[in-house]
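[Meeting: bench + compute handoff]

Bench side (C.D.) handed over the final construct sequence. Compute side (W.E.) agreed to return the predicted structure before the next meeting so the bench team could plan truncations. Sequence as handed over:
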Amino acid sequence: MTTDGRIPEVVERIPQADRGAVQRISPGDLVELATDVGPVPMNVGAVLLLAGAPDADVAAVLARRIGGIPRLRQRLVTPPWGLGRPYWVDDAAFDVHAHVSHVRCASPGDQAALLAVAVDAVTRPLPRSQPLWRAVVVTGLVDAQVGLVVVLHHVLADGIGGLAVLAGLVDGDGSVSPAPVDFGPAGAARPGPRAWDLLADSAVDRWHTLRGALKAVVRAHRGRVELGRGGRGAPRCSLNAPTGPRRKVATAEVDLDPGRAPGRRSGATVNDVLLVAVSGAMARVLHGRGEEVAELVVSVPVSARASTTSHDLGNRVGVMPVRAPVQGSVPERLARVAQITRAQKTHARGASAALVGPVFRLLASAGLFRWFVDRQRLVNSFLTNMPGPTGPLAFAGARILRVIPVTMTAGNVGVAFAALSYAGRLTVTVIVDPDVVPEVDEVVAALESELRAVADA
């Protein structure tokens, strides 16, 4: 972050000299692509709540700004067998208007109605023949507010990469860029690679993979530490059941400073505070269903990025399942969770991807991934926590009041959580399949109560 709270420029323009290279998706991206087999697409989204109407047409603003984010006007191509992983090419038919739509929110135009529009935007598949994103402008909100829902396919970016995309779309300095950025001569799309280029690039990639085999073994060992050494499955509970195509989201909010205070006192992090809060909220809901558990396993992503100023997007993330106790006092639970996460963290952050990625790709290639995730007993829920900007931002001159993350999960995880800090407030989005977890309001109330309890501890 910059000192004035703006998101730094984290998406750099690709130099002209690099534009002839084959832009392959990474092994981590391939996992996101291969495992997109459920009833809900692997999309991620963010809702920007604006104080009023933007000063300029949203499509025109985006057309100017995506010049600095090449992935937003590139499509994904799957090559013939033997020519390596899918790759990105400029979309010669790119039209920003094909990606931007306008929706008038249903009455009463409150946040719940806005989030319903966001869920529809995130759960609709993105056409694979086009760049993998969409933006929905939502009007008809209370107090003349306007919503902007930005949706990306997970193959395009992980959570930190998604923040990088938003960094390139918001004002930053409160103004609109004066003109689109050309991608080549006269703004023409660059031609895609030839079959020979793909064959040569694939051979080089395989050579580098073989050379890095020893490092991969070391990284896989470190990944075992990140995944934990418990060896036990997650507790069985009714929150874990095969999910369908429907999703419902709601939010809990808290001032960030109280959320940080317990971490400072006990050596815990904001992530640890959230782990205690979401596991405690789930335990309260289970108690209301007549179920008692001593602990719950919540999986958190671990970024392998060196910094948030990376010029490229894609997925560089591992997973860290945390066995969070739900019995005992809040200070005891927080101290225990902090102890667990410290033990599982390694110097090679995200190293668990070296173990999880190949297994997931193998299951997907065998047509077994959907069967696996519908029956898995490894985790009870997922929690994503992303640090956002500390100060207020604007889009096309309209002040951004709130940024709400919206993520999707597959398989038998009936409730998941996504947290994002923005301008001193922490928003935690609760994502449920209403057929598995119909009591979303109870989950939010329990989460708010848990967050207050942690802040008061």
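W.E. noted at the follow-up: The chain is about 35% helix and 20% strand. C.D. will use this when planning the next construct.
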